[in-house]
Amino acid sequence: MADKNNQLHVYNTLSRKKEPFEPLNPPHVGMYVCGPTVYGDAHLGHAKSYVSFDVILRYLRYLDYKVRYVQNITDVGHLVDDAEEGEDKLSKQARIEKVQPMEIAEKYTYTYFRDMDALNVLRPDIAPRASGHIPEQIAMVKKLIENGHAYEVNGNVYFDVSSDPEYGKLSGRKTEDAESGTRVKTASDKQNPEDFALWKKASAEHIMKWDSPWGVGYPGWHIECSAMSTKYLGESFDIHGGGLENQFPHHECEIAQAECAHDKQFVKYWLHNNMVTLEGQKMGKSLGNAINLHEFFTGDHKLLTRAWPPEIIRFFLLQSHYRSTTDFSEEALGGAESGLKNLHSMINTIENAKAGSGNTFDLKGLKSEVEAVMNDDFNSAQAIAILFDKLKEIRKQINDKNAPENLDEIKSFLHDFVDGVLGIWPRETAGGKEELTKGLIELLIEIRKEARTSKNFELSDKIRDDLKDLGVQLMDGKEGTSFEIE
Q: What would the pLDDT profile of 36-80 be if each residue is shown by its tens digit?
């Protein structure tokens, strides 16, 4: 567990400042993150969000919090454009692929989890589907009507924004700036333009529809998250996460619905990740510049020159703070690949080494530095920078035949943090390719030593120079020859 004097602080969008993290019912933490709308493959923007919250989840558990993590699957649909008008996304994709909307939902739920698994993103404890929680959504709509915060018109139910004086507190947006947030064109039967739909009357041709007290219809966009999060985490819980683009109107409307239904604070800490850009422009399916994750993994996209393994994508994303914009380029991915190889090389050198005697590495200092930056709103980028600096020092000690005597404790910490929190542990450790590489280099060093002893300097120099060309630097010293993989 982290030093109690170095308390975790998180940036709360609601208060617009960093606050000490103090859960409502410690050591238990309730955490809800808005999941995908499953009408297409996940792209790099999704990876940014879910890798970010994966590290947040992992770090909370590293601190010994008992986290219940809920992430919804939106299989009812959203509208096709940013103006919240037009056709349901699932229905449109179903028409394109000539299948039922729920077939689209099943297909892309599968590919979403497939790609998240590849990125080493932990599965949520509960992944509720919107279509499986229609009764809960209807119950919340009924409660809002009873409490005087919603009204029904011709089979449609709308939230009355004017009934909630705190509406806008998350985003700072005024009610006159609000968008509809429904899945159909702004209706003329609303009392006020800024009111948003809780339930919509379905037309005869609408496929995804359910019975309700107001007739056959389907839920508005926002109600599912309010209903499902409170069902599994309680009427008040600790953390709600999601992309910055969902702050308004989606999260704003979630707050209004939940707090007006239950008359208590909905969420204590609101965390939002920033977006991924391509040459400064947001990446997204609606903008036509999104590269889906499977295309990254296979290299099958016109904007890509090669395949990029999932572990490189994950490491690339962790090198920027979750609240910062991440600008994509293959050059940046190449840099991440080199950095990850170097990190893995250092870890494997440590994993395959045996503890020495007489030298104790300052592990307490390393843990303190890493936890300090993670406790400052989960700064994974700075934590990785600290690891590079300190592991390079440990590797040098090992190569100089002066391995720390507390090497086993160092290995344990690396497993807890690099594997357990960052999720970027090397796939090949003892007995794998890294050990084979190390053994071959040591064999060449031994051959070079024999060549020098027999004054065959031409062979000795060739081994040194050829290894250097391959990125292996030999270092001759009093204790013999050590090496470093660049």
A: 999 889 999 999 999 999 999 999 999 999 999 999 999 985 543
CA 174 centroid distance within chain: 30
> Which residues, 6+ apart, have CB-to-CB distance to 322 below 8 Å?
48, 52, 53, 55, 56, 271, 273, 274, 378, 380
H or E stretch covering 30: strand 28-33
Q: Give just the sign of the alpha carbon dihedral 105, 108, 112, 114.
A: positive
Q: Given the DSSP bridges, would you call strands 276-278 and 326-328 parallel, antiparallel or unpaired?
A: parallel
Sort 332 into a burial class: Cβ within 10 Å, 0-12 / 13-18 / 19+: middle
DSSP state letter for 163? G
Task: Tell me if 370 sits within 8 A of 413, measured CB to CB.
Answer: no
Beta strands in 173-328 (DSSP E): 196-201, 217-219, 237-243, 267-273, 276-278, 281-282, 326-328
- Write down the pTM of the prediction: 0.85
Q: How far apart are CA 314 and CA 320, in angstroms?
A: 11
Q: Which residue has the higher pLDDT, 101 or 444?
A: 444
**pLDDT tens digits along 192-237:** 999 999 999 998 888 889 999 999 999 998 999 999 999 999 999 9
**Residue bearing tokens 């800490």:** 269
b/e burial code for range 26-49 (CB count within 10 A of at least 16 → b): eeebbbbbbbbbbbbbbbbbbbbb
Sign of CA dihedral 201, 89, 219, 177: negative
| Residue 290 binned pLDDT confidence (cut-offs 50, 70, 90) | confident
Residues in the chain: 486
State the Cα–Cα distance between residues 227 and 137, nearest whole angstrom: 5
At 264, the amino acid letter reads: K
| Angle at the Cα of 484 from the Cα atoms of 338 and 350, rounded to 5 degrees | 85
pLDDT at 82: 37
In the structure encoding, which two tokens stand for residue 217, read together?
Answer: 């219809």
Helices 407-414, 363-374: crossing angle, 10 deg rounding: 20
Pick the closest to residue 278 from 333, 318, 339 (CA basis).
333
What lies within 8 Å, CB to CB, of 201 at 6+ separation is 154, 155, 156, 214, 215, 216, 217
